[in-house]
Amino acid sequence: MNGLLRKALRLFRSASNTEQPVRRCEPQKARIIVLAPHMDDEVLGCGGTIARHVAAGADVKVVFLTDGRLGRAAGEDPAQIVTIRKAEAERAARVLGINQLFFLDAADGRLGSDTGVAGRLSEILERERPEIVYLPFFLERHPDHRAANDVLLSATRHSHMQFECRGYEVWSTTLANCLVAIDATLELKRQAVACYPSQLALTDYLHSSFGLNAWRAMGFGQGVRFAEAFHAAPLEEYKQLYAVFTDNKN
Ligand SMILES: [Zn+2]
Asked: What's the gap in Å between 6 CA and the centre of ligand 1?
């Protein structure tokens, strides 16, 4: 049997043993860090939720892990696209009410082999003391998105930090146990996605993201049209679940 499939099946078995039922999450005022492998993941994965946190008075900061140099059309200059994507991220942050952006500048597509980024993230986490950290869930099929989980684990390995992890979905669905209704902030999310014309020229991310958000609203029944989904767990529990996935023993 395919090794990845075997791991996924084992993970589903583990999650169904321990997982709480899917619940509605109400974004609250809190110190929040969003980990985004690339400029636009923060908007596609949790843009509506970020705007709701901000409306509740939260302090939201985003850490971009890579420089995004691969998000370009053939023939485009890598250095130029990095500058463009960072400027787009600044504009999207203003739309959503994000307080601060950090750019850690690992090489796009090679986050898993970057040895310095975890240390830089650790410094940020120690200083900012987040209560919630959003990151791409580790079942994401993009290698940088999966690697974001390794970076977070490395960054917290020798610390006593405690926060809730919320794994969001961009390229693959998460094991959802927390749904956030985003009807009230959908227009802000649309505007924030529109701040990324360099990426929209490659793929209609708005169409795909809103399609996923529409499907996720099914968990609410009547009255909610769009929702974002997360796997929410305290850091230690999230680490245990990830260990089930990464364990190579069959
Ligand atoms: Zn990405």
From this structure: 25
Q: How many Å lie between the centroid of ligand 1 and the Cα of residue 83?
A: 17
22-244, superfamily in CATH?
Answer: LmbE-like (3.40.50.10320)
pLDDT in tens, 8-54: 777 777 666 555 678 899 999 999 999 999 999 999 999 999 999 99
Query: Are 49 and 27 contacting, i.e. CB atoms less than 8 angstroms apart?
Result: yes
Identify whether the C-beta of residue 129 lies closer than 8 Å to the C-beta of residue 116.
no
pLDDT band at 250 (very low <50, low <70, confident <90, very high): very low
8 A C-beta contact, residue 134 and residue 180 = no
pLDDT in tens, 169-183: 999 999 999 999 999
Q: Ligand 1 mean position to 42 CA, how many Å?
A: 9
CA of 198 relative to ligand 1 center, distance in Å? 14
Q: How many angstroms does the Cα of residue 145 sit away from the middle of ligand 1?
A: 6
How far is ligand 1, taken at its centre, from the CA of residue 221, in Å?
Answer: 30
- Judge contact between 119 and 85, C-beta under 8 A: no
- Average pLDDT score over residue span 184-209: 96
